[in-house]
């Protein structure tokens, strides 16, 4: 796996958080040096939980947290809140 571009993990509110944690662990094991975890709307809390689970296990260090309010065509309202967590593998 190329470590040049970050691996994007898009968390949704309907899936188990541990599925995202396992997915991210596999990407780190394959050599990914940077992971971006993001969530929209009600999935923001789950995205933060995924990052905290990885951080508490000593697997990642949070590099940047970014929030935004974006225009999404499929959304029920005009704007949807978004969070992105950029992190690198703690070696």
TrEMBL record:
Region described as Disordered: spans on this chain: 70-91
A matching Pfam family: Alba
InterPro entries in the cross-refs: Alba-like_dom_sf (IPR036882), DNA/RNA-bd_Alba-like (IPR002775), UCP030333_Alba (IPR014560)
GO MF annotation terms: RNA binding
SUPFAM superfamilies cross-referenced by the UniProt entry: AlbA-like
A GO CC term attached to the entry: nucleus
Domain DNA/RNA-binding protein Alba-like per the UniProt entry, residue ranges: 9-68
PANTHER family: DNA/RNA-BINDING PROTEIN ALBA 3 (PTHR31947), DNA_RNA-BINDING PROTEIN ALBA-LIKE DOMAIN-CONTAINING PROTEIN (PTHR31947:SF36)
The name this protein goes by in its record: Alba, putative
Protein source organism: Angomonas deanei
